[in-house]
Amino acid sequence: MAKKTQTPDTDDPMTMALETMQDAGLGSFAWMGTTWTEAMSDMGSEVLNFIASRYSEDVKTQHEMLHCKSLTELQQAQAAYLERAYVQYTVEAGKLLKLGTEAFPQLPTKTKATPL
Fold first, then answer.
1. 57 near 84, Cβ under 8 Å?
2. What span, in angstroms and rounded, lies between the C-alpha atoms of 50 and 29?
3. Are 5 and 23 in contact (CB under 8 A)?
4. Which of 15, 21, 39, 58 could, after both became Cys, cross-link 103 (CB 3.0–4.6 A)?
């Protein structure tokens, strides 16, 4: 059966890009639906909340460092900051990984491979 090609009704670049990707074998993006959109929104919200908390942590640490009375206190404040940052970034990476895997709970059965 010959492949049916459609001419886009509009010159909209996004429409043409989606049709090009669909013609290239990526198929319809309709399977993403609201679940995927909500998952992407949740991930964006999580990242923004994390950035806000990190800024707060930065300001708190700068305040601590400005009030240090010795080099030892300054080193301890910096070390504590780095340790907290390491833990927070590790936890955040785990949260984002979990949200990312939940974004695609199951692919359509017609899909041959997960698109990267």
1. yes
2. 30
3. yes
4. 39
Give alpha helix (H) positions in the chain. Answer: 13-21, 33-66, 71-103
Q: Please, what's the b/e burial string for 75-103 (b: 16 or more CB within 10 A of its CB; e: otherwise)?
A: eebeeebeeeeeeeeeebeebeeebeeeb
pLDDT in tens, 44-94: 999 999 999 999 999 999 999 999 999 999 999 999 999 999 999 999 999
Q: Would you list the domain boundaries of the chain?
A: 37-103
- CB neighbour list of residue 80: distance below 8 Å, 6 or more residues apart: 61
Q: Which two tokens stand for residue 115?
A: 């698109």
Residue written as token pair 């504590």: 80
Please identify which residue in the block is written with the tokens 């319809």: 28
- Asked if 102 and 36 count as a contact pair (C-beta separation under 8 A), the reply is no
Residue 110, C-beta contacts closer than 8 angstroms, at least 6 positions apart: 27
How far apart CA 74 and CA 70 sit, in angstroms, is 6
Dist CA 9 CA 51 (whole Å): 42
